[in-house]
Design goal:
By secondary structure, this protein is of the alpha+beta class. The protein has helices spanning 8-15, 58-65, 69-76, and strands at residues 35-38, 43-46, 50-52.
Length: 81
Amino acid sequence: MQNLTDGFSYRNCVNIGLLPLQLEKPVEIEDGEEAKVDLENYKLITEKGTYELKKVPDFILEICKSGGLINYLKKHGGYQK
């Protein structure tokens, strides 16, 4: 899996509307292992356990919900804090 800590990959995810989820600590997930994401509680749930996800800032959530940065800017006429 791509490491999003370099900033470039994180921004690319946001720009295209892909929610950049990151684990608090590295875990090993086997190929084919099913996983579910609980966005309300920021958890990754697998067959082997439940793991904490880093919280995504609200403004990033809004951009991703809009389908990416360009759609967000079109909808809002620019960036608004």
